[in-house]
Amino acid sequence: MPLRKQEVITFKVDHRLAEALGGIQNRSAFIRNAVLAALDGACPLCKGTGILTPAQRIHWQEFAQTHHTVQCHECEAVHLVCEVSGPSES
């Protein structure tokens, strides 16, 4: 399979952010890594918007009937637990 050509994406930044990025040797790599890290942590449902569509909300309400959130006693991260599969070790 042939390699895909890289795409150039540009965006505007305010003066403060431009200054902050000024000291970074490879800004493109830094920005690429920051965007990939942000995308990796985005909610799989809303894709990071914080808003569910009406259809997603219906599915979520159905899902939430048998799932709830629990805070882990070890790392303190909040995560989903399925009530159908039994209690979590958290």
Q: Topology, pairings included?
A:
Blueprint: H1 15-22, H2 27-40, H3 54-64, E1 67-71, E2 78-82
Antiparallel strand pairs: 1-2
Question: Would you mind describing this structure in some detail?
Answer:
The structure is a single chain. With 90 residues, the chain is an alpha+beta fold. It has one domain. Helices cover 37% and strands 11% of the residues. It contains 3 helices and 2 strands; from the N terminus they run αααββ. The chain has helices at residues 15-22, 27-40, 54-64, and strands spanning 67-71, 78-82. It has a two-stranded antiparallel ribbon with strand order 1-2. The longest helix is centred in the middle third of the chain and has 14 residues, at 27-40. The protein is elongated and about 50 Å long. The chain starts with 14 loop residues before the first helix and ends in an 8-residue tail after the last strand. The model has no long low-confidence stretch (mean pLDDT 89).
Key features of this structure:
elongated; alpha+beta
* Strands side by side in the biggest sheet: 1-2
Detail the poorly predicted runs: none
Strand content: 5-15%
Broad shape: elongated
Biggest sheet character: 2 strands, antiparallel
The succession of helices and strands, N to C, reads: HHHEE
The secondary structure category is: alpha+beta
Number of domains: 1
Helix content: 25-40%
Number of DSSP E strands: 2
Query: What is the residue-mean pLDDT, rounded to a whole number?
Result: 89
As a whole number of angstroms, the C-alpha radius of gyration is 20 Å
In angstroms, what separates the terminal alpha carbons? 45 Å
What is the tally of helical segments? Answer: 3
